[in-house]
Design brief:
heterodimer, A: about 190 residues, mainly alpha, two-stranded antiparallel ribbon, about 45% helix, B: about 575 residues, 19 helices, KdpC (chain A), cell membrane (chain A), potassium transport (chain A)
Chain lengths: ~190, ~575
């Protein structure tokens, strides 16, 4: 028998206790005391109970709501996923064509090029954001469907636009769930 | 490349180097067994572990004993992770009541985590219980990275010792790297991530009422959403730091609960390269010539930066076929990418995660433009030596340094030396093994897969891109990266087995020759540098080292790449001059 067997077994088991049990437990304790909400999925709560996570996109299809990004998993958060289509994949081209057609059908006067994030699916299938351009692209449709002024809707988009962190990190974006809730008059 | 992208990449490199310098000194002190502040705090725990294991941290090991210790420790690691997955339905912390993992998938995942590959044939939230993720995977994230640091420390000692029969004590290296390097870094990062919105809880998934009822794929009305939770941040921190990469969720760090904000993205992305970069500087300190560490780091950056530029540029473009349909190309290729990161930060991550042998993703590489996908693929194929895995990247790069001085020696016809050690036939043989084994795994594996029915069955994209999926998969497994062109249906008996074997060869087929090399180098006398010695800290050597890596990688893989991403790029652009 090798002399290495006992230390290998003992150290594997004891390091399992240290890194696999004690460490996650300490992180959980600290994280919960720092921000319990952040550690528990950043849930958004209304009077009736949780109505979603601020970080997880939901499916919106009515003309009076802002639409989020196309999702390969239909915003079913039980299992994240993407299309994994390459740029030359005909299925991708067909899907993009259909998405553009749907946007144009809902707002026939739109002639601008369609913002890419509105017709290309996200990596997670659960992207909670769209770009400010994608929100503005939908402003006229949403305003009409709700019988409100386009300027008012654009101002709402502006108010819900998050900029880059420190001016460098990430891209400007709008949280679709928050924007739609604000539109619907939620506090 | 936009100004914004340049600014991002510049900030990234600056912060990385600024953090790597002090961390490098610190790591060198840890593996030398010098006293540190943390050692005063955790010293009793360290000594308790040695006593329980019945080892003395000062007992020096011959390279063969060191290797045997590494292999036993890793074998038990594989067995425990396999067992945990097979029995998770009987174990605690399984609130979603997930069943046992299938044997072939459990084998693949166990090998994957022990070998520091962390290939994801599993989908975290749908396959693995909290218990399996924590006790099995999080632990392996730590100890597989610590194994890499240990082997590197052994090699560094071999260079600095003369006529020595031993290269250190594996148990001490393993425990110190875990307790004093990985654990504190992971703790700090995990808390920061959780404060920004990464999940960290033992509570079961949350059920929420949707704001608007949605229509499911079969026309059913959906009014609820299940938000999967779990002890995520603790695992995500170490999977980023330890060049592991196995995601808590299926889509890894593209998932908003795994990587919720641009700030978490930057921190996770920094963690990809932090320890591998720092260890270069530790190495310089360990061989008592810090310039050597900076030279190796310089060679890594010399390869990394141009490839980063290519990838960021490529993802800033949109395929002409999509522009033609009426899509605005200004934001770049956003298929498979998240809005909060955008194209530039996704390309930066893709380059960093494959330069390091991490393999976590924040965007789907399968949907990258052809050249954007070529960059991560080739970074893996050159052997994961540009930063590479924690420890493993640097010992791989040092093997290339041996090859570089050997080639330079051939040109002038004298015996080459590296850091005062004469490089002779045995060393070059071991170096050749280290370079050839993973490359053979990639090319032979890909050839078998595309020639067989069960291999082709996994392909999801038509044409050249389908071949790229297979080539990427084997490049990732045999070089212990773990990222994927995820369209490849890799959870099949064929791929679980084939890729599992590639991971074993790519990890242990390298560790054994590297430790043999360490044993041989330690035994040698150190020769003082003479007038004919090539200095290995100069820009000339940095260039030579980078050129050897690039040349070997290009000669081995350009034919295969031509069949995949290169032909796809020509198809994409050729039809639209």
């Amino acid at each position: 028998m090798s002399q290495a067997i006992r230390p290998a077994l003992v150290l594997l088991l004891s390091l399992t206790v240290v890194t696999g049990v004690v460490y996650p437990w300490i992180v959980t304790a600290i994280a919960t005391s720092v921000s319990s909400r952040a550690a528990h999925g950043s849930l958004v709560t209304a009077e009736a109970g949780p109505i979603g996570s601020e970080l997880i996109g939901q499916s919106f299809a009515a003309p009076g709501d802002f639409w989020g990004r196309p999702s390969a998993v239909n915003y079913d958060a039980r299992s994240s996923g993407a299309s994994n289509s390459g740029p030359l994949n005909e299925d991708l081209h067909a899907a993009v064509k259909a998405r553009i057609a749907a946007l144009r059908a809902a707002d026939p006067e739109a002639t601008l090029p369609v913002p890419a994030d509105l017709v290309l699916a996200s990596g997670s299938g659960l992207d909670p954001h769209i770009s400010p351009a994608a929100a503005r692209y939908q402003a006229r449709r949403v305003a009409r469907a709700r019988g409100r002024g386009e300027a008012e809707v654009l101002a709402l988009i502006e108010a819900h636009t998050e900029g880059r962190t420190f001016g460098i990190l990430g891209e400007p974006r709008v949280n679709v769930l928050r924007l739609n809730r604000a539109l619907a008059g939620a506090p | 490349m936009t100004a914004q992208a340049l600014l991002l990449c510049g900030a990234y490199v600056a912060v990385l180097v600024a953090l790597a310098i002090p961390l490098g000194s610190y790591c060198a002190r840890v593996v030398s067994g010098e006293a540190t502040l943390l050692q005063r705090l955790l010293g009793p725990l360290e000594r308790l572990l040695y006593r329980a294991a019945g080892v003395s941290p000062d007992a020096e090991m011959h390279w063969r004993d060191y290797t045997v210790a590494v292999l036993w420790f890793n074998l038990f690691g594989v067995l425990v992770v396999y067992g945990l997955q097979r029995l998770q339905h009987l174990l605690p912390l399984n609130p979603q009541e997930l069943g046992p993992v299938a044997p072939d998938l459990a084998f693949n995942t166990a090998v994957s985590f022990a070998s520091n590959t962390n290939w994801q044939a599993y989908g975290g939230e749908t396959t693995l219980s909290y218990f399996t993720q924590m006790v099995g995977l999080t632990t392996q994230n730590f100890v597989s990275a610590a194994t890499g640091i240990a082997v590197l420390a052994a090699l560094a000692r071999a260079f600095s010792r003369r006529r020595a029969e031993t290269i250190g004590n594996f148990w001490a290296d393993l425990v110190r790297a875990t307790l004093y390097v990985l654990l504190p870094l992971a703790l700090v990062l995990a808390v920061a991530l959780a404060a920004e919105g990464v999940v960290q809880t033992f509570a079961p998934a949350a059920e929420v009422e949707l704001m608007r009822a949605a229509t499911g794929p079969e026309g059913q009305v959906i009014t609820q959403q299940t938000i999967p939770l779990g002890p995520g941040a603790s695992q995500i921190a170490i999977k980023q730091l330890g060049t592991n990469g196995g995601g808590f969720y299926n889509v890894n760090s593209a998932h908003p609960l795994e990587n919720p904000t641009p700030l978490t993205n930057f921190l996770e992305c920094l963690a990809l390269l932090l320890i591998p970069a720092a260890l270069c500087l530790s190495f310089g300190k360990l061989v008592a010539d810090r310039r050597q560490g900076f030279a190796v780091l310089g060679a890594m950056f010399a390869i990394f930066l141009p490839l980063l530029g290519l990838c960021v540029w490529s993802e800033g473009q949109l395929a002409p076929q999509l522009v033609e349909l009426g899509v605005d190309p200004s934001a770049g290729n956003l298929e498979g990418k998240e809005v909060r990161f955008g194209a530039a930060a996704s390309a930066l991550w893709a380059t960093a995660t494959t330069a390091a042998s991490n393999g976590s993703v924040n965007a789907m590489h399968d949907s990258f433009n052809p050249l954007g996908g070529l960059v991560p693929m080739w970074l893996m194929q050159i052997g994961e030596v540009v930063f590479g895995g924690v420890g493993s990247g640097l010992y791989g790069m040092l093997v290339f340094a041996i090859l570089a001085v050997f080639l330079a020696g051939l040109m002038v016809g004298r015996t080459p030396e590296y850091l005062g050690k004469k490089i002779e036939a045995f060393e070059v043989k071991m170096a050749a093994l280290v370079v050839l084994l993973p490359s053979a795994g990639v090319l032979v594996g890909t050839a078998i897969a595309v020639a067989s029915e069960s291999g082709r069955a996994g392909i999801s994209n038509p044409g050249a891109h389908g071949f790229s999926e297979v080539l990427y998969g084997f490049s990732s497994a045999a070089n212990n990266n773990g990222s994927a062109f995820a369209g490849l249906g890799a959870n099949s008996f064929f791929y679980n087995l084939a890729l599992g074997l590639c991971m074993l060869v790519g990890r242990y087929g390298i560790i054994v020759p590297v430790l043999a090399l360490a044993g041989a180098l330690a035994r040698k006398q150190t020769v003082p540098p003479g007038p004919g010695t090539m200095p290995t800290h100069t820009p000339l050597f940095v260039f030579l080292l980078a050129a050897v890596v690039v040349l070997v990688g290009a000669l081995t893989f350009v034919p295969a790449l031509a069949l995949g991403p290169i032909v796809e790029h020509l198809q994409m652009t050729g039809a639209h001059p």
